[in-house]
Amino acid sequence: MLCRAQIVGWPPIRSYRKNSLQMYVKVSMDGAPYLRKIDLKVYRDYPELLKALEAMFKFAAGVYSEREGYKGSEYVPTYEDKDGDWMLVGDVPWDMFMSSCKRLRIMKGSEARGLGCGV
Prior knowledge:
22% of the residues lie in helices and 26% in strands.
């Protein structure tokens, strides 16, 4: 009886299945000299994602409300969607965010004016 070791990487995984396993996006912060890359599928909701970003970049996002956006912070978490528009993190339901987020940017509050509701 012939015993063969399975070839690493076989059977091939189609690209659409690879993409469904992980969802890496780049994260930048105004004033920070480096970028990070995170897997969004690790997080279950906005509070969990924001907590991780706050720890990663050593900032406080403040309190989010639909009417006023983020209050109590110099920095505002934003994201670029599939259409290339920048929006506040938290403006859309989590599932919609997960399917449309291309990259994240933590920008200064003064630059985020006009995004979302009342920033």
